[in-house]
Amino acid sequence: MRVILKPNHQQASIWTAHYIANKIKSFAPTSERPFVLGLPTGSTPLEIYAQWIKMYKNGELSFANVITFNMDEYVGLDAQHPQSYHHFMFENLFNHIDIKKENIHILNGVAADLEQECENYEKAIKDCGGIHVFLGGIGEDGHIAFNEPFSSLTSRTRIKTLTSDTIKVNSRFFDNDINKVPHQALTVGVGTLMDAQEVLILASGAKKAKAVYHGIEEPISHKWTISALQNHRHGIIVCDEDAASKLEPETIKYFKDIEK
Ligand code: PGA
C-alpha cells in the first residue's frame, strides 16, 4: 500500500486529481481502447472534480474516451432528485466535461428489479474489461462505497441497508432530517472494488482519522471495510494531516521516507 501524506485537503485533492489525470493521459485512450474510471460522490471528491473541470477547460485533459462507473446510488431516489448521486455527478462533473453520455454508468436506485440492476452493473464492468482506477472516499466508520462495517470483503454489487451512523452523517444533505435519508443503497461490493487495477482512496479531516488508522495500521477486518485495501496490489490512500493524525509517528515517518 502507498500512503501519500499532504498538509491539507486542497493539496491532497490536487495531488489525486493530477495523479489520475496523468494515468488517463499516459493511457492515451481511444474509442476502441477507453480508460475505465470508478468514481465516488460525497464531499471528498468535490475539489478533485473542480480540478478536472479546470484541466478540461484548459485543454489539458479529455474525457471523450473515458468510461465511468459510479460506486453507489440511494434506493428510491430517481436521477432528477437533487440528492441522488446521478444529480450530484452531473452537477459537479459530467455537465462540465466532454464525457459521452453513453459512457456514464450509475446504478439505478429506482430500477424495477434492483437485484437484476446490480447483476447488470457487474456485467457492464466486466464487458468493459474491468476498471483501471477506482477513486473513493471513506466513511467515518471505515466504509468504502456503501460497504458498511461487517460487509463481506468479497461482496459484489448489491443492495445494502445503511447504518444509523451513516444515515445521520448523510442527513446533512437532507435538511439534517434523518427521516428524509433513504435507508438502503445499491453499491459496488468490496470485491468489485478490489478487482480494479488500482484503488485510490482520499481521506480528509479529523473525522476520518480513526478509519484511516484501522485501514492502515490494524489487521484486515470486515469491521473496517477500508482495511481490505491492504490486500490490493495497487492500493493508495491519500490523507491530509488531520486524517493521518491517529497514525503512529513511525508509520508517518516510513511513508514520508519512501515517497521522498
Ligand atoms: P464524504 O463521504 O466524502 O461525504 O465524507 C465519504 C463516504 O461516506 O464514503
> What order do the strands of the largest sheet run in, or round the barrel if closed?
1-10-9-6-2-3-5
Number of strands: 10
Straight-line N-to-C gap: 16 Å
Mean of pLDDT: 97
Biggest sheet, open or closed, and with what strands and sense? 7 strands, parallel
- Low-pLDDT parts are none
Shape call:
globular
Provide a count of the helices: 8
Bound molecules: 2-phosphoglycolic acid
What's the helical proportion of residues? 25-40%
Please state the structural category: alpha/beta
How does this structure look, described?
Helix content is 32%, strand content 17%. The protein is built from eight helices and ten strands. Strands 1-10-9-6-2-3-5 form a seven-stranded parallel β-sheet. It has a three-stranded antiparallel β-sheet with strand order 4-8-7. Helix 1 packs across helix 2. The longest helix is centred in the N-terminal third of the chain and has 19 residues, at 9-27. The radius of gyration is 17 Å and the shape is globular. Residues 42-44, 137-139, 143 line the site of 2-phosphoglycolic acid.
